[in-house]
Specification:
The chain is α/β, with parallel strands linked by helices and 309 residues long. It contains 13 helices and five strands. A five-stranded parallel β-sheet has the order 2-1-3-4-5, sandwiched between helices. The termini are far apart. The relative contact order is 0.13.
């Protein structure tokens, strides 16, 4: 399939040679490792420099989720796998229902472990997968490109815009104007980590920059939605023994209750640590605690005030 000019330009950006790698193959392993790790710091600097754009993306994400929408990650190759990882980890970390976070990758689940280059060039597959996920105006789509905007990703972006979903675009491929001239996304962020130590190997700096950016956006969004108190994950909903231990530690930390009493309180709260905390501090039952959380849009601090951490 023919590539657009913007796609070809994105490819040349990512294929650029890094001057520091000129003698890479002649160096001992320790020096190669040092160079690779040093270059990763450029990914961190690049993401930090995009803080304003990442904050805008986080606010868009928070607004859509607060209104009952879903978070949909979509990508190809390494970028798609990073989106799938983020989707998988957001759910338990912030006590989200499974339906709220969706992952779409070119090639489907098979592509999580194997390269599926044919799927990356298939816009029809993107349309089918976005349609199957029922992406709509209530959702926010986070599209990720580590190398170029492939035909699959372009079709996914087009579908999301057609369905009037909120759209975030993260790219490491340089500025990417839309072939139609219309905006590709509501928030488009070119992370720009620079050329890889191994030209075109985007699982290096590009992957690091993308992972950092995804973590920053989602974490900031969920902080806005009241999923944390200070740096504690108070909305964790334990489903395993380790999860119960984590929830118990959080409740113990914010109530000074013994661990066994904290665990009993969480059980009375229906397995919800945040509800348990409201019950303790506001001296109410579980039903009233849930009402208070709804009234205060999930903000624990708005209900219990400042507790020494």
């Amino acid at each position: 399939m023919a590539r657009s000019r913007s796609q070809l330009e994105g490819r040349s950006l990512q294929d650029a040679e890094n001057p520091r790698a000129a003698m890479l193959d002649s160096l001992p392993p320790e020096e190669v490792v040092k160079l690779l790790v040093e270059e990763e710091t450029n990914a961190v600097k690049a993401v930090r420099a995009r803080a304003a754009g990442l904050a805008s993306a986080a606010q868009l994400m928070a607004d859509k989720l607060a209104a009952g929408g879903r978070l949909v990650y979509v990508g190809v190759g390494t970028a798609g796998r990073l989106g799938a990882l983020e989707a998988a980890e957001c759910v338990p970390a912030f006590g989200l229902p499974q339906w709220m976070v969706v992952s779409i990758i070119a090639g489907g689940p098979h592509a999580l472990a194997r390269v599926s280059e044919a799927a990356q060039d298939n816009p029809r597959e993107a349309d089918q997968r976005m349609r199957r996920a029922a992406v709509g105006p209530q959702d926010v789509v986070c599209a990720i490109a580590d190398f170029e905007i492939s035909p699959f990703l372009q079709a996914a972006l087009d579908y999301a815009r057609f369905r009037r979903a909120g759209v975030i675009l993260l790219t490491c491929a340089g500025p990417m104007p839309s072939p139609s001239g219309a905006p590709l996304a509501d928030v488009a962020i070119d992370l720009g980590p620079g050329p890889e130590m191994i030209a075109g190997c985007t699982r290096l700096k590009a992957a690091t920059a993308i992972k950092l950016a995804l973590e920053a956006i989602s974490s900031a969004a969920f902080v806005r939605l009241g999923k944390t108190y200070g740096g504690l994950m108070v909305d964790v909903r334990p489903t395993t023994p380790r999860g119960w231990q984590r929830a118990t530690r959080v409740v113990t930390r914010l109530t000074n209750l013994p661990a066994d009493e904290a665990a009993k309180l969480i059980k009375k709260a229906g397995g919800r640590a945040k509800v348990a905390l409201v019950m303790h501090h506001a001296r109410v039952n579980a039903a009233r605690a849930k009402e208070l959380l709804i009234q205060h849009k999930g903000s624990l601090r708005a209900i219990i005030g400042d507790v020494d951490l």
